[in-house]
Prior knowledge:
There is one protein chain. With about 675 residues, the chain is an alpha/beta fold. Helices cover about 45% and strands about 20% of the residues. It is built from 23 helices and 25 strands. The chain has a six-stranded mixed beta sheet. A six-stranded parallel beta sheet has the order 16-15-14-17-18-19. Strands 20-21-22-23-25-24 form a six-stranded mixed beta sheet, sandwiched between helices.
Amino acid sequence: MKVMNNKFKLRGHLKHLTRWPLYLTVLLIALNVLVYMIDCKAGLVVTLGTLIYAVCAVGILLYHRPQMFNDLIAFASQYEVLEKRVLEDLALPYAVMDIEGRMIWSNKEFSELTGKDQYYRKNVNTIFADVTPDKLPVSEEQDISEISTQVGDRIYRISMQRIRLGEDMVHAKILEDLPETTSLIAMYLYDETELREYMQANEDNKLVLALAYLDNYEEALESVEDVRRSLLIALIDRKITKYFSNYDGLVKKLEKDKYFLIMRQSSLEALKAQKFHILDEVKTVNIGNEMTVTLSIGIGLNAANYLQNYEYCRIAIEMALGRGGDQVVIKNGDNITYFGGKSQQMEKTTRVKARVKAQALKEFMSTKERVVVMGHKITDVDALGAAIGIYRAGKTLGKPVHIVVNDPSTSIRPLIAGYLNNPEYEPSMFIDREQAMELVDDNTVVVVVDTNKPSYTECQDLLYMTKTVVVLDHHRRGNEIIENAVLSYVEPYASSTCEMVAEILQYFSDDLRLRNIEADCIYAGIIIDTNNFITRAGVRTFEAAAFLRRSGADMTRVRKMLRDNFDSYKAKAEAVRSAEIYRECFAIAVCPSEGLESPTVVGAQAANELLNIAGVKASFVLTTYNREVYISARAIDEINVQLMMEKMGGGGHINIAGAQVKESIENVKEMLKGIIDEMYQEEDSLK
């Protein structure tokens, strides 16, 4: 129905319904023509009847038309009143807004809930602060949006639906010339308080499984008299059992140094709130033992079933031990959270594990045709030295061995130079990623050294081209690990991967003999990662160095190969000169990268130099390389730089770590300072 010249005109089906007598007149005229063809007198009679019918039809239509319009208007008015009453009395809070969020009308329930008049005209944001303009369904792709809000002590789900008036009216064929873009927003409020309470109760009562291991059980017992060992064990058992019992947890001892824990998820939240104080409480158990006992806990939750939960906690405890112990690792689906891990792991004096891993590595190599070794991107001296050690192990078994190095940095070029054009070594000793991908198949052992993150390797694709992957690394594990490794030897207490490889070589085969140039490379890796035996050098580090010296390593040759060029030395000096001291003990510097082939190596060296400044507890050197900012983080003993770098997507050790960030230097500086501030706030909250 539309308005023209102040008169109503019908349209659509209603228009045709009222005009059907006129359409029938056309049929009568056609019939009249046929009658004329048969008989003229009869045709005249039919013509007269047709005229009388047409006059009556038009007369009746004109007579009843105004009344019909009045009835239609009355029906529409009554229907509108009925519809409005239904909406007003609707038990669900309901309101209508314009496209910008201004209130137009609301029903009684909505008015009583919000305390606003039914014809409140201000923006909905003045009633619900959570309903901001960006939450309204105003885009062409979005017709419905939902958010949650709290009104008093009740929680409501607000559902907003965009209603296109123009489009609806065009299809209804009642009004014309109404823009299709004309829209309103209908708002519904659903009380979900009880539903949320039930959901939270269900969440709180979910089963959480955990495994707890004593990291240094054997070492701690050795430092106690025989007659007092049972007392130490009993005190530790009592401490752990009592602690978790206070949080409605069940503790079952599996072995002498292993515990199985069951608790509710609400108990886990309470433990997280107080940062798992059990880690510190276990250390307080002392009956004369020289070595404090440390505890590692792996927790799994929110899996599809209980068996998967157990698998989660098993993975978590492996990560906790792989990261050095004395910490809690929580695996919640794909999300992994860490607590503790701030103390340095004690070095294990036994080398049984190294002997077992050496024999396992020998078995894997013996059953395959070839060996491919790769380290991390931008291969450093430690990664190269470890790869050289594995090379010698493979050649001892008579296997072809290849080392993947894509782009040798300036730090390793002097070491690689001794193997190039050397008749004692085949030209295919060093290959790039393309050549490696052509060689690797199921008859290949891929050995990854000095990293346990797939994305950090020289060629990640190699990890999925064979079923035999071996990982040797001394970095603490993070969220990203090589999951398909048949042999994983990760020891965070080791000073370097070269130290681990040197131990493996001693147990690998009686026929293994290192050449002088190979011993130099492995020795150089230990020198670099320990900063000339200053950082993280333990008893086993010096034992490994002694083995390499006996094998022909020469300190003078190594020192000559590791010397810096003049430009690198100037860049390192500039980084130290321009360093900023933040919070009186954190040195933050930027290392210039212009003109340097390996600026990341120089940045790491500058970070080591900054630790020699009195009062500096940790140093951070930022270097721009390949459109990324590389961070070299170093500390002596008080600060855990690994946890700080993990927050920036990196990792490493407690006192040697790093990260790569795709941001500007200034943004990375601010991110780093924010992490330092956050660390101070956490320490203040625990005091």
